[in-house]
Specification:
Helices cover 47% and strands 21% of the residues. The protein is an alpha+beta fold. Strand 4 and strand 5 form a beta hairpin.
């Protein structure tokens, strides 16, 4: 009996010494796995694990030691142990021998290796987390009551640490998840995102930037002044730099950088000033949208058959020319030519409407061929066309009609093997006295055209806008 008491006393003293050595090594700043490794090393254990349920009911199992142990083995062991002690109050339970058999299947090395073990409940003071702490040893520990008490003391010290560590690791995990999400968003978002430092070095360049512009981040960084790649014009480049570094533009503004293959893009850019003073550039590539808008604008003002202005568009051109016209400024004077393709109904009746359409197209092509670049041509009716000649008078309009008739003779419309020579009549109005009434001007041009047709067709009649 005395010998047993002496051994128990020695074990208690050894336990106290182990605890005294262990306690200073434990702190909440280390990882939970590192803390368990420290406990194993000081106490001579081969396996330590903690199973904790946080305040959201999520179970976390952390194992450490020379014996490999997986979370599912811990879960099965706890379920079996708790089932056996279903109606018994307990805080600590220990096994004198063969704990490995309770924890592992027969094929596991720990099945026969582990002998003594201790399982202790743990709960934080505010119950934010609860769970179990477990230690196992290779050899049989005869003084298990001492070990049991030591584990209780250890758990009292550790439970708040466990809670703090678990909360910290959970927060870190959540932060990693958020960072990963934002990194994925940055890389995969169909939005241009990049940043340049104050020395114009590229520090951010997402996948959409590489896709749209054609340059990789490595190529951007390798260039002495990356903005030159996108904005070759020095003045435009200066404006871009000012918009980013001096007065970041919060609203979306349209810029026209150049792609790697030399194609000019249309990009809407906005600059976001970050807390550290750097600027994140966010852009949308609207190049295709701009092209579509331009195509729609052209379609809205273009005659589908001939490609010249439609009626509303040419009348708007005429209205603008009248608004700019002044009787005192010779440079603002212009001529209005009203063309009508002669015998067009006969062409349709004899050759068909498809040939009639070809005649209209051929006629417009030759008008454009003999007209100056600043002339505006529009279709105002079936076979009637309006031509605006800037800085011209009746003589210039007459000469243009002569050239057009010559072109129709030398370049007749080919209908199969037949050459079809087209003819036209024209009414010309000189606008040089500050005329403002569009309807009156069109009436006078139409009357001049009627006079040309009435007196035998194939003629040009010129009138002035005298009042």
């Amino acid at each position: 009996m005395k010998e047993k008491q002496r051994e128990t006393g020695n074990d208690s003293m050894q336990a106290l010494q182990s605890l005294a050595k262990l306690m200073p090594l434990l702190n909440s700043q280390c990882a939970l796995s590192d803390m368990l490794e420290t406990i194993n090393r000081v106490l001579g254990a081969s396996l330590a694990w903690v199973s904790v349920n946080d305040d959201e009911g999520v179970q976390r199992v952390v194992c450490a030691g020379g014996v490999a142990c997986h979370a599912f083995e811990v879960t099965d062991f706890l379920a079996s142990t708790l089932l056996q002690r279903h109606n018994r109050a307990w805080r600590v339970v220990y096994w004198k021998e063969n704990i490995g058999r309770a924890l592992f299947p027969p094929q596991h090395p720990g099945y026969s290796q582990l002998q003594s073990g201790v399982l202790c409940k743990l709960a934080s003071r505010d119950l934010r987390c609860s769970g179990y702490f477990f230690l196992a040893f290779d050899e049989r520990r005869h003084s298990l009551p001492v070990l049991k008490n030591m584990v209780v003391i250890l758990v009292e010290r550790l439970k708040d640490y466990f809670e703090e560590i678990i909360v910290r690791e959970k927060t870190a995990h959540e932060m990693q998840r958020v960072v990963a999400q934002y990194k994925t968003l940055f890389e995969r978002a169909p939005v241009l995102m990049n940043a340049f430092d104050k020395h114009n070095r590229c520090v951010l360049w997402n996948a959409e930037c590489e896709k749209v512009f054609g340059w990789s981040m490595a190529e951007i960084i390798a260039h002495a002044d990356p903005l030159v790649l996108f904005y070759p014009d020095p003045e435009e480049r200066r404006r871009v730099q000012e918009s980013v570094h001096r007065t970041p533009l919060k609203d979306m503004y349209e810029w026209h950088p150049v792609r790697k293959d030399g194609v000019q893009l249309t990009i809407l850019w906005s600059n976001i000033l970050l807390p550290d003073g750097s600027v994140l550039n966010i852009g949308l590539d609207i190049t295709e949208r701009k092209k579509a808008e331009q195509q729609l604008a052209v379609k809205a003002t273009t005659d589908d058959l001939t490609g010249c202005f439609n009626r509303s568009a040419i009348l708007q051109q005429l209205k603008s020319a009248l608004a700019a016209s002044s009787r005192h400024d010779a440079n603002s004077h212009f001529c209005v030519l009203m063309f009508d393709l002669d015998y067009f109904k006969q062409i349709n009746d004899e050759w068909g409407h498809q040939t009639g359409d070809a005649a209209l197209i051929h006629f417009c092509d030759l008008i454009r061929e003999v007209s100056p670049e600043n002339a505006a041509l529009g279709r105002v009716g079936g076979e009637e066309f309006l031509l605006l000649l800037a800085q011209s008078d009746g003589d210039a309009a007459t000469r243009l009609c002569i050239r057009l008739r010559d072109a129709l003779r030398t370049k007749p419309l080919l209908v199969g093997d037949t050459k079809l020579e087209l003819a036209f009549s024209a009414g010309v109005v000189e606008v040089c006295r500050g005329q403002r009434d569009t309807s009156a001007l069109l009436t006078r041009a139409d009357k001049a055209l009627y006079d040309a047709k009435r007196t035998g067709r194939g003629k040009t009649v010129v009138v002035s806008d005298y009042l």
